[in-house]
Amino acid sequence: xxxxxxxxxxxxxxxxxxxxxxxxxxxxxxxxxxxxxxxxxxxxxxxxxxxxxxxxxxxxxxxxxxxxxxxxxxxxxxxxxxxxxxxxxxxxxxxxxxxxxxxxxxxxxxxxxxxxxxxxxxxxxxxxxxxxxxxxxxxxxxxxxxx
Length: 147
Known about the structure:
- The chain has helices at about 5-30, 55-65, 110-145, and strands at about 45-50, 75-80, 90, 105.
- About 45% of the residues lie in helices and about 15% in strands.
- With about 150 residues, the protein is of the alpha+beta class.
- The longest helix has about 35 residues, at about 110-145.
- A two-stranded antiparallel sheet has the order 1-2. It has a two-stranded antiparallel sheet with strand order 3-4.
């Protein structure tokens, strides 16, 4: 693995964590949405991260021969899932989406859980920025050796 691939790995982590933070913000902003385009209440979304494996020496050589750049390790968002936990029934007979008994099905979004997810994504993003800056500093110091 090349020294410069470390930048790609940190950048992939920053991209994935930004997506996690975006989804947490979307969940919070829709925590009172009782009607979506699909017809039902909003369902909490979750980000699934997946490792981007480091390629073998053979596959690396083959990609260099055809001059295509392959990604070297890191993480990616593999998919975004809807949480299938039960929705929250709330008694509000005056609400336009209330059923015959007067209950409105509210989204399965928990503000505390979304806040913790957002904080976790922020800290992971900061860790990737720190690693990126450390690699940048090492590259600068390596260039100073030749002076």
